[in-house]
Amino acid sequence: MFESEADLLETIAQHDALVRQCVAGKLSFFEFCEKYNNFYAYWALDGHESDEEERALLEKHDNLIEPHRVIAYEILEKLCSDEDAKLGSYINAGRFGSLEATKRLANVRVGA
Predict the structure, then answer these.
(1) Measuring CA to CA, which residue among 112, 110, 109, 39 is closest to residue 73?
(2) Inter-residue contact 98 to 29 (CB < 8 Å)
(3) How far apart are CA 62 and CA 69, in angstroms?
(4) pLDDT digits over 1-53, tens only?
(5) Please, is 74 exposed, middle or buried when counting C-beta atoms within 10 Å of its C-beta (0-12, 13-18, 19+)?
(6) What global pTM score does this model have?
(7) How far is it, in rounded angstroms, from Cα 55 to Cα 31?
């Protein structure tokens, strides 16, 4: 998936920047989602599509990848439409809309 370690680090840095832009209000949450493109899953950062060499590289930089796993599983996976986020059944299921997602995104520490 990645041509080199530098390619991996640049790709992570680009997605870190998207998170910071969204939290700073420079991107709406929906613009963020479009540009972020479900980064963790799309790039298979869990290593399931990687060869042994790339899995070692992903493991080496796990501290930079972990925030994106959190974004994938603890924020984006629980996201629903803003309209549905007001419904009791969605609230009870732990789902939330873009405002709450943005608040949670602000608590994720991505690389500098």
Answers:
(1) 39
(2) yes
(3) 10
(4) 788 999 999 999 999 999 999 999 999 999 999 999 999 999 999 999 999 99
(5) middle
(6) 0.92
(7) 30
Alpha helices in 1-112 (DSSP H): 5-23, 29-36, 39-42, 52-60, 62-70, 88-92, 98-106
Q: Which two tokens stand for residue 99?
A: 């405002």
Bridge partners of 96? 79
CA dist list (Å): 56 to 4, 23, 36, 67: 12, 31, 24, 18
The one-letter code for the residue type at 77 is: E
Question: Tokens 């920047």 — which residue?
Answer: 17
